[in-house]
Amino acid sequence: MSEVFFRSAEEIGPDNTQIDQIIDLFPRISPVKEGDIVAIKIHPGELGNTTYVRPVIVKTVVDLVKEAGGIPFVTDTTVLYPSKRFNGVDVLNTAATNGFTLGTMGAPFICADGIHGDDSVSVDIGGEVVDSITVASAIASADSMIVISHCKGHPASGFGAAVKNLGMGCLDKAGKTEVHKVARPSIDIDKCVGCRKCVNVCPWDALSLVDGKAIIDHDLCCGELACFASCNFGAIVPPADSPERMQEKLGEAAYGPVKLLPEKIGYINWIFDLTPGCDCFNFSAPTFAGDIGITASKDPVALDKASLDLVNEKMKHDGGGCVNNVWGIDPMIHLEYAEKIGAGSLKYDLIRK
């Protein structure tokens, strides 16, 4: 049974700030040794988003890594969809706009999968649905890592935290495509009006218009579904089982970074600003649950299960419902697959002091 440490938001005050809580939790989960080059994996937020983990929290972890003798860098990866984080230059520019710079954190921000999102290391993981996965090379090259995750809803996985930060956030574009490709859609030509919105939004040139109707080249399609989000007519049709199948791949892909850095990763979940959408959204919607606190562990699966349970308890206490209701998706699928492949355990002991 894995230990998960918890500090409640209800305990926060002048003498017990979030920074104080991070300082208290860090030594319990830190794998950092003297001389380690340490990746601090975060999500810096899409341009326009305002509810990502704040730079001051990241700076606190940077300082703690330095005190432990580590050499830290803060990092994230490129994305598959049209975004201000599509390439490595835009990732750095967006991170800087959102407050993540050498000056604010005391450590450089590095795009872990390079300028074009193809700088990676392939890892054989031997899963049921994923044989191998490509992990961003700056993460693969690190001696140890601290993963800081914002707990929030997610339209594909229901809930996003540490496991998603591993199984998506630590991958290059090819790895992300491996997870997303089960969602490659089809076209309902009877509903397609030939408006070209899907053609224009796809950064992979996977869509084109033939005789006034959209067609998809599945050899080019990454399955991320920016086209689906752009269509106002219901003409883009993902497979009905794609949310479940994507979660299966997501859970297994999380084992890639864990296998590369065995017992060299510590995890912190920041359970504040529980928005329905992920930090990839270019806006921050009203929260679906109140602030809960900070959890930390050496086990990402146990950490996410404990965090999810705390959110569900909070929602039940405050009037009913659960995380599954936010998007109609059960996030336990990806956690169960992460456990089965060996990324961690669903069984945990929650330690509040």
From TrEMBL:
InterPro entries membership: 4Fe4S_Fe-S-bd, 4Fe4S_Fe_S_CS, DUF362
Gene Ontology MF, one: oxidoreductase activity
Domain 4Fe-4S ferredoxin-type: 183-212
Protein name (record): 4Fe-4S ferredoxin-type domain-containing protein
One protein family per Pfam: DUF362
UniProt superkingdom: Archaea
